[in-house]
Structures are given as C-alpha cells and as structure tokens.
Amino acid sequence: MQQIVSTKPYLIRAIHEWCSDQGYTPYLVVAVRSKMQVPMEYVKNGEIVLNIGYNATRNLTLGNDFVTFSARFNGVSREIAIPVGAVVSIFAKENGEGMGFEYEISPEMDTHEISEESPIGITPQPEPEPPKPGGGRSHLRVVK
C-alpha cells in the first residue's frame, strides 16, 4: 500500500508562490521542539517566526518532509531545518493573508536520535515550553 503524502507541504509551497508572485513577504510560524535546527535565541512562547522570502534565504527548499534554507541572523549565516509537521502557519507579512495548520507530531521530531533522512545535521536542543492551546484551531498573527 502506498503511503499518502500530506497536503500540507503542497499548500505551503502554493502560499509561498502566491506571496512571491504578489510581491509579498512569506513568513512561516513554526512550533519549536527539541530536535529542530533553528536559532533558539529567537524562539518565543515555543514558536519562531521566519521570513522565508527569496531575498532573505539561500538554497530554500520547501520539501515534503522538511523546509531547509540558510539565512543570516545578526550577520551570522545559519542553516535552518524544520520538519513540515511543525509548521503552524504561512502568511504574507504585508496583509496577514495565508493559511494555518494543525501541529503534526512525526517520528523525526520526537525522537532524540538523528534521523538518516534529515537533510542536514539536526541536533537536539533543550525542550522549550510548548505553545498554549488556542481552542484547537490554528490562528494567524500579523508580525510587524
């Protein structure tokens, strides 16, 4: 039996393309867990908001399993790797239009061993406080 791929990565790519075509800046909101390669100093309330526009990233890959890219944070280039299941929304900075998603737990996010399929060396990080439940529904926030 063939494994069914989630629609989530396809929707992320579609909203990213729409933002780029309209001249908007696509932002990704990610629920950060222990095994993600993100700049932890920018994590607030268990989430990080990242500009994933082509002008802010290098080698952006919006894959079916991971979103990967490199970007500068305070002038220092960092490699970012985010499991698609941890993406809770993608939206345009300029008008807040976009799409919210449910947080999905996947084996590569909850184990403490580095997966062979990880696109780059994802190292375990300290577990941040989980985001507070918002009634089960995703929501978008405008980031200025």
Automatic annotation (TrEMBL):
InterPro entries: SspB (IPR007481), SspB-like_sf (IPR036760). SUPFAM superfamilies: SspB-like (SSF101738). This is Stringent starvation protein B. One of its GO terms (cellular component) is cytosol. Residues 110-144 are annotated as: Disordered. It holds the Pfam family SspB. It comes from the Bacteria. It comes from Formivibrio citricus. One of its GO terms (biological process) is positive regulation of protein catabolic process.
